[in-house]
């Protein structure tokens, strides 16, 4: 099988094909649990694509986003995650069951912040990620795979495209 240019044999590589399998698996796990969200909130930016895929797979049209910054570069984080603008209208979640979706529970600090913040308004909050890391402080309700490896996601593995047509590392 031909691998994409960004594929590294010493890393966990989530290609688009594997992502399709992972998102369907997660969606099936959510349906099998008997719990069904009214709203799905994707954690920007890594959770956007999985949140959309799960929303389509289980038929949820009410989608939201919450912007959180924690990683500032590969392997470099802020001391704690911070909520960025534009802010999610948390009042609109009152009385609703909310599924928070992200790409990975690495340290777990981002999910811990978001889930606990949304629990202040929503009736019930659960979480789903593609990957969990062994050292996470937050255990999501649903996940596809556990890995200790650095993860190359299909949507963020390539360099950023700049206005002058060049590329720069970092996402």
UniProtKB/TrEMBL annotation:
| GO MF, one example | glycosyltransferase activity
Q: Where are the transmembrane segments?
A: none
Q: Supply the alphabetized keyword list.
A: Glycosyltransferase, Transferase
- Describe the location of the Phosphoribosyltransferase domain by residue ranges: 19-156
Its protein name is Phosphoribosyltransferase
Pfam families, A to Z: Pribosyltran
Keyword Metal-binding appears in the UniProt entry: no
Species this protein is from: Corynebacterium phocae
Domain of life from the UniProt record: Bacteria
